[in-house]
Amino acid sequence: MSTTPQTPYQILGEDGIRTLVNTFYDLMESAPEHAALRRMHAKDLTPMREKLAEYLIGWMGGPPLYADKYGTVCMTEPHEPYWIGPEERDQWLRCMYQALEQSNTPPEAIDMLREPLYRVAEAVRNRPNSRTQSDDVIASG
Ligand code: HEM
Prior knowledge:
The protein is an all-alpha fold. It has helices at residues 8-30, 35-40, 46-59, 65-70, 76-79, 86-102, 107-124, 131-139. The chain is globular and about 45 Å long. Protoporphyrin IX containing FE is lined by residues 37, 40-42, 48, 51-52, 55, 70, 75, 78-79, 82, 84, 88-89, 91-92, 117, 120-121, 124. The site of protoporphyrin IX containing FE has 22 residues, from helix 2, helix 3, helix 5, helix 6 and helix 7.
């Protein structure tokens, strides 16, 4: 018996992806461990809730909502203004992995998403070191 491989979009659906994204930003807004990540973002996260949901819906195999609206799925350019080193990348990933655990995402979808999420986060990294490390270097002369 053969089973048709499922995309994360088929498992989660649009509602599940929107729940994941809302959980991600709720955690970013409320958990002290994500305060540094929160400070990088605009005061009002409402537009980001929509943008990231649209992006992930397409990225997970659903309709290309973000591409249709913005004409690209390249994430390098929109991240250029921000300092994203290894620590910033990992802060984003920790928040997203927590959101996956807390948003009723089925374990098989979590397994499918971990590695590809790491790869996208690594692709938007645009600094060899984290801001904290570079501040330390400056502070210690
Ligand atoms: C899988 C990895 C990631 C994805 C899919 C993603 C997705 C996005 C999207 C769709 C946007 C909106 C772009 C636009 O203006 O159209 C965005 C903006 C942004 N991202 Fe990411 N991102 C990722 C990783 C990161 C990482 C590692 C950081 C840094 C810690 C980061 C920080 C930001 C910030 C600060 C903004 C601007 C938000 C604002 O305007 O409030 N992202 N990201």
